[in-house]
Write a structure and sequence with these properties.
By secondary structure, this protein is mostly helical. The chain has 19 helices and five strands. It is found in: Apical cell membrane; Cytoplasm, Cytoskeleton, Microtubule organizing center, Centrosome, Centriolar satellite; Dynein axonemal particle.
Length: about 400
């Protein structure tokens, strides 16, 4: 967390230099994939256990949140090319991770996006945790998109195995076209087919925000990340020599021409080169799939973790239920104190890009809970309505502060 804050605030010695010098990028990638595997393999088993009735879901939430913290840090530091290079062989694993997240994003593009706050739907702590996990998974996928774009900035220094993984195994250019088509970070709210198209909303800052009509032609950050990644993957000399433009790939890529408007080209002038490439592609004959026999490196973190723990997921879930997710009141207070020290609110507020939001209605807030100092509210009425959900956490946080 401190690394994220330092990198965001650009204070002190650049955090990316410390991560590179001490060889911590591969460690972060492995930790990221380990938490992802835990969420897929252990957490569902844990929830099905008969004696899984947690009095407090904070410990589980912090495990789920750990993946978001790591990908947030990687997004912040991967902007620097030396960080990508220091990932060494684990960049293959990171490419696979990003591909999994983006595939999930495309698969869910028919939905309306992450869940909104609905008090009637989330009445129990576990239901609330599930809502938070769904929202977090959506945000993690968006962070993975940015990380992937930064990796494509380094195509000139990536290994042949990594390029092959991106272009042949995963066919990332076609996946990025799918993302542009569906744009899961944008939606229309209040659509009525015979009256109006509804208000355009974009997911930004962990929530859906309505875009003013005068701003709707402006390129969003996430759309920009997709276009830059496509530019890198299609026009870099290293990738053009290795990407097989089959009839399927040709058909998918030519869909981009409909998006390359004059307004877009004014905002990203370099896309004029991509437009010329697509014009030439339309006249070219598709290439047959390549069948070259080559030896290439493959990602190993996911496979190794799965191999080492295959058949043990139930035992792991039972062990964690007893020793990790069933803490005593005293242990819970100690954990609350450690979390309070880790997520220092004064520092978080110093680097926050916008004013705090009301925990109940999401309006801009100016009042903070006087007991725990963690939640913000716009008025007393919202604080009273939110107390049923916030009360237990508030008491726990206050006890943790007194224990210091």
């Amino acid at each position: 967390m401190q690394a994220i804050l330092d990198a965001t605030a650009s204070q002190g010695e650049p955090i990316q230099e410390l991560l590179v010098t001490h060889g911590k990028i591969p460690v972060l990638v492995e930790e990221l994939i380990a938490v992802e595997m835990w969420k897929q393999k252990v957490f569902p088993v844990l929830c099905r256990l008969e004696d899984f009735k947690p009095l407090n879901t904070f410990p589980i939430y912090m495990v789920v949140h750990h993946e978001a913290s790591i990908i947030n840090l990687l997004e912040t530091v991967f902007f620097h090319k030396e960080v990508c290079e220091s990932a060494e062989d684990t960049v293959l694993d990171l490419v696979d991770y990003c591909h999994r997240k983006l595939t999930l994003l495309v698969a869910r593009s028919g939905d309306s996006g992450p869940p909104e706050d609905d008090e009637s739907r989330y009445s129990t702590p576990m239901q609330e945790l599930q809502k938070q996990a769904e929202l977090m998974e959506f945000e993690i996928a968006l962070k993975a998109l940015s990380v992937l774009r930064y990796i494509t900035d380094c195509v000139d220094s990536l290994s042949l195995s990594t390029l092959s993984r991106m272009l042949s195994t995963h066919n990332l250019p076609c996946l990025l076209v799918e993302l542009l088509e569906h744009s899961p970070w944008s939606r229309r709210e209040g659509v009525c087919w015979f009256l109006s198209p509804g208000k355009l909303q974009q997911f930004e800052g962990s929530r859906w925000q309505t875009v003013a009509p005068s701003e709707q032609q402006k390129l969003s950050k996430l759309d920009g990340q997709v276009w830059i990644a496509l530019y890198n993957l299609l026009l870099s000399p290293e990738t053009r020599a290795r990407y097989c433009l089959t009839s399927f790939a040709k058909g998918q890529l030519l869909k981009l021409r409909a998006f390359l408007t004059d307004t877009l080209l004014d905002q990203l002038p370099n896309l004029a080169d991509l437009q010329s490439f697509l014009t030439q592609l339309a006249l070219a004959e598709p290439q047959p799939p390549k069948k070259d026999l080559i030896l290439e490196q493959i990602p190993e973190i996911w496979e190794r973790l799965e191999r080492e723990n295959r058949g043990k997921w139930q035992a792991i879930a039972k062990y964690q239920l007893r020793h990790v997710f069933s803490p005593s009141e005293q242990d819970l207070r100690l954990q609350a104190r450690r979390w309070a020290e880790t997520y220092r609110l004064d520092v978080l507020e110093a680097v926050a890009p916008e004013r705090p939001r009301c925990a109940y209605c999401s309006a801009e807030a100016s009042k903070r809970c006087s007991r725990c100092q963690n939640e913000w509210y716009c008025c007393r009425e919202c604080q009273v309505k939110h107390w049923e959900k916030h009360g237990k956490a508030c008491v726990l946080a206050a006890q943790g502060d007194r224990a210091k």
